[in-house]
UniProtKB/TrEMBL annotation:
Family the entry assigns: Belongs to the LOG family.
EC number, as in UniProt: 3.2.2.n1
InterPro entries (UniProt xref): LOG (IPR005269), LOG_fam (IPR031100)
Organism of derivation: Methylomonas subterranea
Catalytic activity: AMP + H2O = D-ribose 5-phosphate + adenine
UniProt key word ATP-binding: no
Keywords: Cytokinin biosynthesis, Hydrolase
Keyword Hydrolase in annotation: yes
Alphabetized Pfam families for the sequence: Lysine_decarbox
Name of the protein described by the UniProt record: Cytokinin riboside 5'-monophosphate phosphoribohydrolase
Length: 196
């Protein structure tokens, strides 16, 4: 059983074209606060990012934002968080978010969200962490990506063991229940920390 005190959520700095994405962010916010789970996210006050953070705060939850100095104006750093951490680089941002979190969830977002999701999933494959990784597949947003990942599995560019490290659900409660029950599989660490 995993202890989940804080979760990192990757999501878009755009609201997307449908209100369903904002609704999903609010639903996830409610599920986090109900379970007393702190939100760790990219620190912006706009798009799905801002909607998620605002709702957690409205419900009395704790929110830590992590944003690189160079993006604090473009992504409009949220002004009312429990804590804001400003980093020197994107790499430092992602590392800090990972350190602060007991698991990772991707809501709908753009290429930045995808990059963050794939990096943290790769870190799990490499044995750099033993934390749950998942996707909230809101309104079929990730259907095409998930079909491609099944193709990658079928073509034997990823093993079933690593493919299975990415959990997928359509609602936050089902995903969070899986996170609490998560037991990381034994994964041989490919490289040691000093080697990278």
């Amino acid at each position: 059983m995993a202890t989940i005190k804080s979760l990192c959520v990757y999501c878009g700095s755009s609201p997307g074209r449908s209100e369903v994405y904002a609704d999903a962010a609010r639903a996830l916010a409610g599920a986090l606060v109900e379970r007393n789970i702190r939100l760790v996210y990219g620190g912006a006050g706009i798009g799905i990012m801002g909607i998620l953070a605002d709702r957690v705060l409205q419900l009395g939850g704790e929110v830590i934002g992590v944003i690189p100095k160079a993006l604090s104006h473009k992504e409009v750093a949220h002004a009312n968080l429990s804590q804001i951490i400003v980093t020197a680089s994107m790499h430092e941002r992602k590392m800090r978010m990972a350190e602060l979190s007991d698991g990772f969830i991707a809501l709908p977002g753009g290429i930045g969200t995808l990059e963050e999701l794939f990096e943290i999933w790769t870190w799990a494959q490499l044995g750099f962490h033993r934390k749950p990784c998942g996707v909230l597949n809101v309104a079929g947003y990730y259907d095409g990506l998930l079909a491609f990942l099944d193709h990658v599995l079928a073509e034997q560019f990823v093993s079933r063991r690593y493919h299975g490290l990415l959990m997928v659900e359509t609602g936050p409660d089902a995903l969070l229940e899986r996170y609490v029950a998560f037991q990381a599989p034994e994964v041989k660490r490919w490289v040691e920390e000093g080697e990278i």
